């Protein structure tokens, strides 16, 4: 069975995929020790708040150096999903905030289905 991404690429070959950064961050913090959450969150900002993919990659390397031995699975997730976590950086800064998270889309759909 094909996944959604593969099916979309068949129908829309030029489509770009963006993993919701907010959900990725929340997922990354959910299973961490309370005393480390703030420092991990701050390290992740070095990735998704970067102004370019190059800077984001540097942020990821810094994050890996700091947390890779303690949380290798966390770092691996961000490495494996880096391209889809930073797709929004290919767009002008003015629209990035609408692309990097699905919250606005979720809010729209919730309102649509709650009213209907």
Automatic annotation (TrEMBL):
Which InterPro entries does the entry link to? Transposase_mutator
Write the record's keywords in alphabetical order, separated by commas.
Answer: DNA recombination, DNA-binding, Transposable element, Transposition
Question: Which residues span the membrane?
Answer: none
Q: DNA-binding among the record's keywords? A: yes
| Entry-linked Pfam families | Transposase_mut (PF00872)
According to the UniProt entry, its GO molecular function terms are: DNA binding; transposase activity
Is Lipoprotein set as a keyword in this record?
no
Kindly list the biological process annotations in GO that this record carries.
DNA transposition
Summarizing the function annotation, the protein's role is: Required for the transposition of the insertion element.
Family, per entry:
Belongs to the transposase mutator family.
Protein name as it appears in the record:
Mutator family transposase
The protein's organism comes out as: Thermodesulfobacterium commune DSM 2178
